[in-house]
Amino acid sequence: MFAEAEADPILSKDEFKPLEERLRAALLNAQYERLRKADKSLLIVVAGIDGAGKGATVNLLNEWMDPRHIRTLAYGPREGEELDRPPLWRYWRDLPPKGSTGIVFGSWYAPLIIEASRKKPNAEKIEAQAAAIMRFEAMLAAEGVQIIKLWFHLSAKAQKTRAQHLLASPETAWQVSPVDLKVNKRFDRIRAGGHVVLNHTDCGHAPWVVIPSADENMRAARTAEAVLAAMRQRGIPRIPPAFVAHSGSTRIVDRLGQLDYEAKVDKQDYESELGLLQGRLARAARSDKFQQRSLVLVFEGQDAAGKGGAIRRVTHALDARQFDITPIAAPSSEELARPYLWRFWRRIPRHGRIAIFDRSWYGRVLVERVEKLIAPAKWRRSYAEINDFEEQLVASGALVLKFWLAITPDEQLERFREREKSPFKNFKITPDDWRNRDKWREYAAATNELLTRTDVPHAPWHLVSANDKRYARLQVLRHIVEAMEDQL
């Protein structure tokens, strides 16, 4: 794997000069063509031996291409608000839009490389970390993010010689870090770790390319050739079936049909219990223990099921500085230029805070599925992607609760007519609401399937009969309070 790179091949100046001219022109043309099409973005992941000239090569790429459409994304150890969220949050947050290019230093590979390069690496950790990376990259690739991973490599002798050469001049000494100087002593371990990383994570939709790096010209030419080949690649690569949630393997249960839609609460009992539950919620949200956790509340349901009213009863108990409500509508042009889950990753809360989603990422397997806005392969794949997303939230300290507020067709019709008559509510009723009623069965089928495939212990669904609004609001509050008190 590293044999050619460790032979330290050289490209003479006479050979490099005409090649450089061709590569520069070709890279610019390919870059502008991608900008024109704007159908996918490119992520160039930079890794490899420290002291192999990675930074200098990336600087050269910015010179050869139009730097206005390249984002260099450099990451160190997680700190501050990054520690309150899943490790992949910062990479999701910074994803470039379609047509653009991102160059990533300190990528999601850093923990895997560190583990694989230890004296006694933990095989289970390596397998788990590699599997998580593969899921992440498969999801990005399927959503139009092209990934190419460059491993810069050279022999131990060449690495040492390069560091000494740079240190000899005050003008270049700054390029040598303390880490670069220690590499030679640990070269064999780093090399072995690199083998493990590349063997575990090289795949068609996110390939590794080893860049011989002892010679500056060779390094520049090979990097440019790899990037150019990626930019010229057409279409979206095939994603292995292992990353797709297969439909038909699980029996879909009609959970909506099993609800008791006659459940009610009288006004007096409602008022007294509402105050008690809101008081318990206020105490839990203000507790010291909650400062080490976060809360994610997802509200879904049929049109006019009372999501807004239930949310207001929750927020009445909270400090307005502590929560954010995100109403989800059709994605904007900025959101369409990135993977589907991008806009939701950006809204996940820090510890001590609460994120409330009035509709959510489940739109992909509901409205987008039923209205045929996307191909079936996309929404079928989304169950696994959603479960993975929520699992990462929980692993980072979030409490994830999902509510489906359910009403009957007759109750919905009554509420629609009430909204049309009320000057305070008629803004809530739209032609789409009436049109969606005609697809009640299709939406019910999609709902029952998402409940079956995404109701998991770490992020459970709570089905709430909402024909009686008071009953539904108390049920929502009760589930939140009990979950928080149990966890804190």
Automatic annotation (TrEMBL):
<dbReference type="GO" id="GO:0006797">
    <property type="term" value="P:polyphosphate metabolic process"/>
</dbReference>
<dbReference type="InterPro" id="IPR022489">
    <property type="entry name" value="PolyP_AMP_Tfrase"/>
</dbReference>
<dbReference type="GO" id="GO:0016301">
    <property type="term" value="F:kinase activity"/>
</dbReference>
<dbReference type="InterPro" id="IPR022488">
    <property type="entry name" value="PPK2-related"/>
</dbReference>
<keyword id="KW-0418">Kinase</keyword>
<feature type="domain" description="Polyphosphate kinase-2-related">
    <location>
        <begin position="12"/>
        <end position="233"/>
    </location>
</feature>
<protein>
    <submittedName>
        <fullName>Polyphosphate kinase</fullName>
    </submittedName>
</protein>
<dbReference type="InterPro" id="IPR027417">
    <property type="entry name" value="P-loop_NTPase"/>
</dbReference>
<keyword id="KW-0808">Transferase</keyword>
<dbReference type="Pfam" id="PF03976">
    <property type="entry name" value="PPK2"/>
</dbReference>
<feature type="domain" description="Polyphosphate kinase-2-related">
    <location>
        <begin position="265"/>
        <end position="487"/>
    </location>
</feature>
<dbReference type="GO" id="GO:0043751">
    <property type="term" value="F:polyphosphate:AMP phosphotransferase activity"/>
</dbReference>
